[in-house]
Design brief:
The complex is a heterotrimer of chains A (299), B (280) and C (413). By secondary structure, chain B is mainly α. Chain B is 69% helix and 0% strand. Chain B is globular and about 70 Å long. Chain C has two domains: 23-131 and 293-350, D-Maltodextrin-Binding Protein, domain 2 (3-Layer(aba) Sandwich), CATH 3.40.190.10; 135-276 and 371-411, Periplasmic binding protein-like II (D-Maltodextrin-Binding Protein, domain 2, 3-Layer(aba) Sandwich). In chain C, strands 1, 2, 3, 6, 13, 14 and 15 form a seven-stranded mixed beta sheet that branches. In chain C, strands 8-11-7-12 form a four-stranded mixed beta sheet. Chain C has a two-stranded antiparallel sheet with strand order 4-5. In chain C, α10 crosses α11 (259-267) and α15 runs antiparallel to α16. The longest helix of chain C is centred in the last third of the chain and has 18 residues, at 394-411. Chain C is globular, with a radius of gyration of 24 Å. Classes of the chains: A mainly alpha (299), B mainly alpha (280), C alpha/beta (413). At the A-B interface, α1, α3, α4, α5 and α7 of A face α1, α3, α4, α5 and α6 of B.
Chain lengths: 299, 280, 413
Amino acid sequence: MGGYPVNSYKYLRKQFVAYGFLAPAAILLIVLLLYPMILVVWNSFLDNSIINPTPKWVGLRHYRWALADTVFSRAFRNTLIFTISSVLLHLSIGLGFALLLNTSINRRIQTFFRVLLILPWTFTVAIVAIIWRLLLDPLGVVNFLLSIPGFIKPGLAWFGDPGRAMSALILTNTWGGYPFIMVSLLAGLQGISVSLYEAATVDGANSWQKFLYITVPQLKPVILSIGLLDFIWTYRLFELIWLTTGGGPGRATETLGTYIYKLAFTQYQFSRASAVAVILALTTLVLAIFYLRAQKASD
Amino acid sequence: MHSVKRISFRVRGIVYTLLIVSGMFAVFPVIWVFLMSTRPNVEVFKWPPTFFPEQFTLEPYKRVFRDPVYLRFFFNSYVVATVVTLFTVIVAILAGYGFSRFNFPGKKLFNLFVVGTQMVPPITLLIPYFSMIVAFGLFDTYKALFLTYIVLTLPYAILMMTGYFNTISKELDEAVMIDGGSRFYALWMVIVPLALPGIIATTVFSFLLSWNEFAFALTLTKSTSMRTIPVGISLLMGQHAYEWNVMMAISILGSAPALLLYLFAQRYFLSGMTIGAIKE
Amino acid sequence: MALVGIIVLGLSFSAFAQGTVEIEFMQWWQPEMKGDSFDQMIQNFETQNPDIKVKPVTLPYAEVRDQLMIQAAGKTLPDVVGVDPQWMHTLIKYGVIENLDTYIAKDGLDVSNLALKKVKDSAWIFPVTSYIYPLFYNIDLLKEAGFNEPPKTREEFLKYARALTKPDKGQYGWVLPLSLSLPNGISNDICPWVWAAGYDIMQDGKPYLNHQGVIEVLKFVNELYQNGFLSPGTMGKREPEKVEEFANARVAMMISSVAHINILRERNPNLNFAIAPIPAPAGYDGPPALRVASWDIGISAASSEPEKEAAWKLLKYITSTEVNAFVCSNANAFPGNLLAKPDYIGGDPVYEMAYDLFTKADLKYPLVGAPEAFGLERSFAELIHGMFEKTKTAEEVAAEAQKTWEQIFAENE
């Protein structure tokens, strides 16, 4: 856009304007986020910070420890399973609902459902955890309803059973997390030009073709960025898992998020926790790079 | 999409059915919360579970409204969420525009930084953050929560705004500038109205995150008069027993403002916004 | 002119020096005490000490431990802190609370009537309340199954559990909460069996798990689990849920805190229940042992001198005979001051039973002075999960738990 010679006054002024737009965000984030982040990385190289008034530099010791730790590998695996399942479910349910909510049906009904489907998002994590613990209690409502047609016997443990805890957790996170995806995709759907669909109809395309060749490509940037953000957020998720299962039974639902918390707040190993956090951040960095590549492609 | 042709009856039927089924998935737990909030605590764990409470009571709700401490929680949550949302959206619009329309030295780096902030689990930031807030003398104030939440929601907001702005043709800006308007004018008068759905989504997200946040609210406030709703809810989890029905009542009451906000906001997801008109 | 200035300055300075000291009191007790009795107590203290103002900082119990460390790290810790004795090791190690020996000596305070828990022979916290954990049983359910008395031995307990488990009615014999996010089931529900048989989990301040006493208990609990006598969901269950299940007559027996007596009455006034000592193995004739939990109170080491002085006054006040009785009446707890007589005695008959047990039993405070009680409980609970899942035997669990505990102790020296 505009081919100013690099050393012209206009070019410099343009950069200045650009920085102007970014200044408020830059100041806030650098002062309030960059500094703590650097502290975390710094702490990971000390023997134990916060607690120890005179920490010593120990280099990569905690990183070596983490990579050899069996709990860490289990947590890593669990985190991947949990995250990928959650994100896929979020995207499919979110997209499905968004499409439903975007069709032209009675305006009042549409509004009603648009608000209804948002409900899970309006509850704080502690309550979401409690609700689902109550619902999935071995002698709770869900088991009761499932036992009427005889699908299961009451007394089936969900969060309390190592084999089922992960599934129960994914279900809970899906319920609590899909509205955000849905809202973002709905906004994206709104941005697709109607004329594109009209032109397709003229060309004789059916609904499925319209979906494949117009909706999906147009929505791709939004799906990509939302999907990636959801992945990054779910990957580091802590509160929901802690409040439902605490990483158990055993290590069945131990994730990097819960492990970091335990290292920091039950073992007071803040430096180890920082090291695991840094590893977590680095692995998601890989994905962030993919995101940037994809965004560049859509520029 | 506001189709020119009418949606067939059959398709409409399918859509309604699917909406009802999905509605149940979303709503059943919420209905359960409401049902739990209107019964004495003992009925919460009854077996077999009863749909309608044997002893219907509005006492939990009365307790919330009668108690100035709880009302103060609501007030605090409102103040914090509103201020944070306002600031976040404005700053994010500016930054998103900068990312979307300009190429400048350090762009990639800053972009990486913004994305990078999302990769650090907030729980690890809790202690360094806490020390910083104390050092600034902001412990136990609204400002601590304002700053914290703005910083927690800003990265996402910037990324989404950039994405939405990217879908709006740059030719619009240039049209305005050719007519003698500044970029600033172009942004606020032309681009923003077109990106409204995305802005609304960001607003709702910001509000909800501030409204529902727990860990930092607990750590950065000390006085009961500064606490927010999520902290208030957790105070009902005593050492020896939980006040299930009051917790549920507060949750229902707590979700109402967010719902209202969304009800208002979703009007802007109007079908038929022909944003791409100029793209042709 | 200058003279006037100096006098004014001097006067205001002395007024400042005699001004009120404000101290903050961090606890989780306010909502657990009846009505606004907690606030009343604070007000009374302030009336008696007009130069001190107390500002309560109330937290949910689950958050207090974390917040103690976070606030200490940020140097914003309130001056007076409510403490669970299980946290003592960590608080002492990181210099969070004051050593109270000097204060006691300076005042010449007679502390023989306080149930002090000493670590390394020093007093760090004062006891405010105690809660014992006896066996609760549902009289009606037991009668239905043909039992007129609570089980007295472990063997009987097993028999009772079998007879009381009726899955079709959603009724089970016993309930064991062993969730990893709140693993106090180890201290509350498993250890009492060990103590009731005269064994212990610690010896000379070191972990002592790999022995007959623990292994037998593990086998006992495993038998209950594998036979389905336990209310389902053990590995994800938490203490509050255990109490709710008992209140709803979904389980016939549970080990729990006397603090729950009131809650049970509130939840289900028709519940016909009583308490008994923890059953010991047949043939054991030692004194009954009971797990005790307590609310204790300490002084923050980081506070200033006047604040510490004021805090010390508050400590003495709350643990004085009359005030302690007041607190305990309203918290439904037993006093930390053994001379205090709360006035529920003569009220609820179950409380009388409990008080009787309290005075007779060998009181056990688990993991006091042990590092990271939460981590110890959690690791042990995790191993027990393995036993339930049949990937470990009871012997293996005891041996591995011993090793893990030793490791945790070593890391925290």
